[in-house]
Design goal:
It is a single chain. The chain is elongated, with a radius of gyration of 26 Å. The protein has a 6-stranded antiparallel β-barrel with strand order 1-2-4-5-6-8. The chain is mainly beta and 126 residues long. It has one helix at residues 2-19, and strands at residues 35-43, 46-51, 55-59, 64-77, 80-93, 96-99, 102-105, 110-122. 17% of the residues are buried. The chain has 1 helix and 8 strands. 14% of the residues lie in helices and 55% in strands.
Amino acid sequence: MKIFYCFLLGLLFSTTGFAQEKNNEQQPKMKLSFEGMIGASFGKNFYTINLGGPTLMLGVSKDMKIGIGAVPSLYAEGGKLGTRLGYTPRVDYKNIVFMTPFFPVQPFGKWVGSVGIGYKFQKAKK
């Protein structure tokens, strides 16, 4: 009986050794990069200059990404300039950004939308 258990143990170790073989194919790796965005958007009776904030992006293809993000903005309405944090769905195609930011306004709970375009810049790839 001991021989049978030794045989099973040897078989187990030999099969796990084969399971650890490396595949010659390159496995996709996660990349971490720094990128920013500057853009402008226009709405009814206001305009904004937007800077890239935190975004959550999904790569659709090599050149296209879609996602949502926050855009710190200079907000101009009625001759008054201020800062606002907008939230936007966005589509990035190469270095061009298409976005539709939404901004909170007073009274609380009211949001206004706009449409904009921007330029995305990123650290050069080595």
